[in-house]
Amino acid sequence: MQNWIWKQTNGIDYITLPTWEDMGVTVAFSGRNGGTSEVPYQSLNLGLHVGDKTENVIHNRNRFLSALGQKLDSVTCCQQVHGTRVAVVNKKDAGKGAYDYATSLADYDAMVSNIPGIMLTTFYADCIPLFFFDPVHKVVALAHSGWKGTMGKIACKTVETMQQQYGSLYSEIYAFIGPGIDSCCFNIQEDLAKKVTKEFAGLSDIINMGKNGYRWDLKETNYQILIQIGFRPENITCCDLCTSCCLDKFYSYRQEKGLTGRMGAVIGLKY
């Protein structure tokens, strides 16, 4: 098991995995504190697409990347349209989406790369970030898995791309299921619960009944999907923090009724 920790650098709090870092990977998930954005985006909003002032977001992004020992020019972003398409990122893609959302890789929700120095970056406010690292073939990947992406098995599509492009083996890939909304807060309607149960008939305990109806465990669903296709349990780490429960640490689209900032997920091979 690769344990995650909170780390603070230059006033910026973020989650990382020391064992991945030791193996040559920059990996981080930001908190909401330490930036300059104002209400309702306070304070380390990293999303350019939510209505915040561009100059504040760029300042926040620079602060976050600097805390990781990286530069904003190294960042590559995708549009995150709640789909399942996976982009293979090359040197020419460095900087796309870093300063302007319109330049992000269009119509993608996941990215893979084997290019050192490129920081794959996606943004969150309840959806589940999926980090992947193949230490044998030196490949990293990042997938944005909301409920639609989870239904579409974006986790599988992402690691399939790692396998097809770089020869990665599922048994050798490490996965980190990052902070996101947990089943304690993710209530869904009965019709969606039935679709989930049908789609994932081979999985167990991913839909539960609570006092407010059906609850879907997105993290557990992604965990079981990865086990099902051949991941080793000891190679998967899952963060137990719920973004909806921890507004002091994270943004939550559901809890803050859509008007809020975004955390950033970053992964990249070090030079």
Write the layout of secondary structure elements.
Elements: E1 5-9, E2 12-16, H1 18-22, E3 25-30, H2 54-67, E4 75-77, E5 86-88, E6 110-113, E7 119-124, E8 128-134, E9 139-145, H3 147-151, H4 154-166, E10 174-177, E11 187-188, H5 190-199, E12 207-210, E13 213-216, H6 218-229, E14 236-238, E15 263-269
Parallel strand pairs: 4-7, 5-6, 10-14
Antiparallel strand pairs: 1-2, 2-3, 3-15, 6-9, 7-15, 8-9, 8-10, 11-13, 12-13
Notes on the protein architecture:
This protein is of the alpha+beta class. The protein has one domain (5-181, 233-269): CNF1/YfiH-like putative cysteine hydrolases (4-Layer Sandwich). The protein is 22% helix and 26% strand. The protein is built from six helices and 15 strands. It has a six-stranded mixed sheet with strand order 1-2-3-15-7-4. It has a six-stranded mixed sheet with strand order 5-6-9-8-10-14. The chain has a three-stranded antiparallel sheet with strand order 11-13-12. A hairpin with a 2-residue loop joins strand 1 (5-9) and strand 2 (12-16). It starts with a strand and ends with a strand. The mean pLDDT is 97.
Shape: globular
Low-confidence stretches: none
User: Strands of the biggest beta sheet: in what spatial order?
Assistant: 1-2-3-15-7-4
Q: Give the proportion of residues in helices.
A: 10-25%
Reported for the largest beta sheet, the result is: 6 strands, mixed
CATH class: Alpha Beta
